[in-house]
Amino acid sequence: MFNNKQGHSLERVLGNFILLILLLPQLPVIFQRSELHINIFALSLSILALLLYRTKIEKKSYIIPLLYFISMQLFLFFSSWFGTEGFSSFGEIPSYFRPTMLLIITLGFLSMIKDLNSLFANLVRVAKIITVAIFIYSICEVFFFSLFSKVMFVFYRLEDKSNIDGVAVSFFTLPYYSAYIMCTLFPLLLSNYEKNKGYSYLYCLMLIASVFLTQSKMGVFLLIGIVFLYWFISVSLKKKIFVLIFFSVFLVALLLSLKAFVAYLNETVGGNFARTLHLMLSNTDQAHNLLERLDDIVETYQAISQHNYLVGIGLGKGETIEIWIAMVMYRYGLIGLLFFIVFFLIVGFKTMFMAMRKGFYSFEERSLFKFVCIWALTIYISQLSGLMLEMSKGGVLSCLMFAVASKCMINNGQTKVEGFKHA
Fold it and tell me: Tens of pLDDT along 254-301?
């Protein structure tokens, strides 16, 4: 039987690995925007983990990552073979096997997950460290940029992206990448506060402040959705009705007052968030980013419908498509888009129902279920600015989420049940 102490050390190694990846310099002055070195580093360590611990993976744990990534790999192959986009160069070959690479990274992570309680503790540790690091770095980036700009441009920040001047990207190149990473980790900090109270709320405040410093519209509104979902999952059945009513009233009030509030922010505070959101609300015709993303969806659908509904167009390398709906259609076709939507709905609602079973699972287990549930159900919002699920550090973190989801969904309450047996 697998040694429990060794299992705990494996989760700590996994936590350190994730922390290292998230803090690893992108070095845009060398690698431009490719960030290939991050993929190579993550893939190498995952292969090493598989070689060392692959026999420890429960067979049932393979089902979810294999189902998702092999399906997406097949959809991509079909789009490449039967789509209209031609093969450009041999340099595209690694991109054609991206789902396979992400599968290997996911299995590498999965090989280091043995105990959910230990996993929760180590992921919370990582979330705390990365939150403090991002907060301090973001403060320096926004308020003391002139002092640190040269170093920041070397390690993390794109020098040619003048449209993000005055916003924080921290360790993730672009503001919406940073927002996605932080929003993914946010439920862990909420669980940490629920369990420990005290000053642990400071981590939540630092993360919220860091998301606001990115001035990412997606990130700010996603935080609201995460708080609602976490609250809804955590309370009893009777209180869920109150949460739904409260959120509905809040949503109506937000919609009614948003335009005036954003206009006030734009006049008094300014900044990228207020300026672009004000433009979207008051003069949609000039909101080029919004219009471009809507056009991407329409144009991609039209291109598919003229050729073949079942397959996509091709890899899409070099295309400026950002919104996930258009990118998934382009690469994987309409059948791939349907699979993507259904897959995350199933994962989200399955883990939601598991998280609600307070008498059967430990607090740590239920916290991980909430962690996975919120990530899965908000994926449709978090990927509006780009399919970060497959890219660079966002891709690596998403592989962790697939691994945690896989381990959680085969969990049958053994930790709690065994605890009662020993009592």
Answer: 989 988 888 888 888 777 787 888 888 777 666 566 677 788 888 888
189: CB partners within 8 A, 6+ apart: 124, 127, 128, 131, 200, 203, 204, 207
Residues of the chain with pLDDT under 70: 1-8, 33, 55-56, 86-91, 160, 162-163, 284-290, 318, 412-423
45 membership: H or E segment, kind and range: helix 36-53
- Distances from the Cα of 223 to the Cαs of 17, 181, 252, 356, 402, in angstroms? 26, 12, 17, 21, 21
Give residues with Cβ within 8 angstroms of 217, minimum separation 6: 273, 276, 277
Question: Are the C-beta atoms of residues 405 and 60 closer than 8 Å to each other?
Answer: no
Report how far residue 404's alpha carbon sits from residue 396's, in angstroms, rounded to the nearest whole number: 13
Do residues 214 and 134 touch, judged by C-beta distance below 8 A? no
Buried b (16+ CB within 10 A) or exposed e, 182-199: bbbbbbbbbbbbeeeeee
What gap in Å lies between CA 178 and CA 218, rounded to an integer? 11
Q: Give the Cβ contact number of residue 228 at 10 Å.
A: 17
Look at residues 166, 161, 207 and name the one whose alpha carbon lies nearest to residue 188.
207
